[in-house]
Amino acid sequence: MDILIVEDDAWTASALKSNMEKWNHHVEAINTCKEALNRAEEKRFDLAILDIFLPDGKGHQLIPHLKALNHDIGIVTMTGSNSRELELEVRQEGISFYLIKPLSLKDLKRIVDHMNNRLKKEPKTPSFISSVNNGNIFNDSENERG
């Protein structure tokens, strides 16, 4: 699975990256919202693990942009500064999991394994492919329905 970690704490990012690589995943660690968006435009990730408070913005504000680039991306958020209001705000973005730091490596592995299994079972949404029919543009799934 291709995983994007967006975490500004270098130690946490490094620990997450090295453990996920040991679990046989391809992992990239980025430390700002801007870098994350730029990288997500260049590469399709299966899972994004986002810290909520980043130097240049809130990680959960990336979610609509990441989903616009890849509808199937799994989203896991994490924070060390939790509040009920924040959790409700973040959950409205359609995340898969909301984690509170410090993270349990055992729980994180379960989550990553679950997301990987889900990815293997669910067919991926086709990338947007333009096809013109009487001046209308359809994506693959709409064309199949006729």
What does this structure look like?
- The structure is a single chain.
- With about 150 residues, this protein is an alpha/beta fold.
- Mean pLDDT is about 85; it is low at about 125-145.
- The protein has a 5-stranded parallel β-sheet with strand order 2-1-3-6-7, with helices on both faces. The protein has a two-stranded antiparallel ribbon with strand order 4-5.
- It is about 40% helix and about 25% strand.
- It is globular and about 35 Å long.
- The longest helix is centred in the last third of the chain and has 17 residues, at about 105-120.
- The protein has helices at about 10-20, 35-40, 65-70, 85-90, 105-120, 140-145; strands at about 1-5, 25-30, 45-50, 55, 55-60, 75-80, 95-100, 130-135, 135.
Strand percentage lies at 15-25%
SSE order, as H and E? EHEHEEEHEHEHEEH
Rg, Å, rounded: 16 Å
Helix content: 40-55%
Summarize the structure.
With 146 residues, this protein is an alpha/beta fold. It has 6 helices and 9 strands; from the N terminus they run βαβαβββαβαβαββα.
Architecture blueprint of SSEs:
Blueprint: E1 2-6, H1 10-22, E2 26-30, H2 33-42, E3 47-51, E4 53-54, E5 57-58, H3 63-69, E6 74-79, H4 84-91, E7 97-100, H5 105-121, E8 132-133, E9 136-137, H6 140-145
Parallel strand pairs: 1-2, 1-3, 3-6, 6-7
Antiparallel strand pairs: 4-5, 8-9
Features:
146 residues; 5-stranded parallel sheet; two-stranded antiparallel ribbon; 9 strands; disordered C terminus
